[in-house]
Amino acid sequence: MELIFAAALCSVAVSILLKLAKQHGFSPIHLIAWNYATASILCFLWFKPDLQHVSLSNTPWLLIIALGVLLPSVFLLLAKSLQTAGILKTEIAQRLSVVLSLAAAYFLFQEQFNTLKIFGVVFGIAAVLCILWSNRDDASSSNKGMLYLAAVWLGYACVDVLLKYTTSLGVQFSVALNLMFVCAFICSMSYLFIQHHHFGAVKNIGAGLILGLLNFANIALYVKAHMLLKDTPAIVFAGMNILVVVFGVLAGLIFFKEKLKTASSIGLLLGVISMLCLAYAMSA
User: Fold this and answer.
1) What is the domain count for the chain?
2) From 37, 82, 122, 149, which residue has the greatest number of CB atoms within 10 Å?
């Protein structure tokens, strides 16, 4: 359980760092770009992917490149959502992207659904709609906040579906993840050079490398927890998602003085119910 707790803390720490970045003169796009340098190196050292035997002809490069472009794009949308909608709502929307992934699994991968899983998806979608609805009365940033929240929800679901599809083609998870990070780093650096003609100030590079450490630690600890608790994946799934939402809500309320509106509270409750339903469905 300590691994799940630590993974959840790292996940929320990533969001806190991104939210604070712009307020303290850092460039989120530079941080996101350099985060993939750390993530690529640590992924290679931690998971030890067999990159030497990657086949140029059999590897789904279009999918890998698509993920390499999508990852930093969604990360940037996450940063925008944190600024406009707040960490509280963004964390819930990000975690509930799993319901779209499951819906895609049903339609694209013919995954079997039981009653609990159906309830989990329905409650999850209702939770996100409540979170989006709670943003309607915010001043000038309301439309942008709703747009970024929806984009985070959709974006993370797309990443999950594409990664699942890539591994279903025979590419090992560790290889696919490492190739994604390397591709994301190359794409991000290319964008920075074209748009800004430089790769960032020293402070942005340093903060980006720290962001990459936290980002990768979140993934590595979560995967490690699944390996150690392979007979009870529902505990890992529910524990991780619910802890991230709880920590995100606490961070929003305590550190950033965000308000938990009625619609947000209902969305939070529905989100927790959704995750519990999905967790029980996994163990059924």
Assistant:
1) 1
2) 82
**What's the confidence (pLDDT) of residue 64?**
95
DSSP state of 152: H
Given the structure tokens 């998870």, which residue do they identify?
A: 173
- Amino acid 264: pLDDT: 86
Q: Helix H segments across 48-198?
A: 61-84, 87-95, 97-108, 115-134, 142-168, 173-196
In this structure, the number of other CB atoms found within 10 A of the CB of residue 2 comes to: 8
**Residue 51 resides in a domain:** no
Any domain includes 6: yes
pLDDT in tens, 8-19: 999 999 999 999
Q: Nearest-CA neighbor of 124 among 284, 281, 276, 274?
A: 274
- Looking at the domain assignment, is residue 222 inside a domain? yes
Q: Using an 8 Å Cβ cutoff, are 222 and 7 in contact?
A: yes
Greatest C-alpha distance within the chain:
54
Half-sphere exposure (CA, 13 Å, Cβ side) for 14?
Answer: 26
Can you say how many angstroms the Cα of residue 48 is from the centroid of all Cα atoms in its chain? 22
Is residue 170 one of the residues assigned to a domain?
Answer: yes
**Alpha-carbon gap, residue 181 to 177, rounded angstroms:** 6
Range of the domain at 116: 2-45+61-283
Q: What integer pLDDT is reported at residue 106 of this predicted model?
A: 77
Q: Kindly state the tokens that stand for 277.
A: 């339903």
Identify the helix (H) or strand (E) that includes residue 9. helix 2-23
Q: Has residue 247 got a pLDDT over 80?
A: yes
CA distances from 246 to 5, 11, 33, 221 (A): 11, 12, 28, 18
**What's the CA gap between 120 and 281, in Å, rounded?**
8
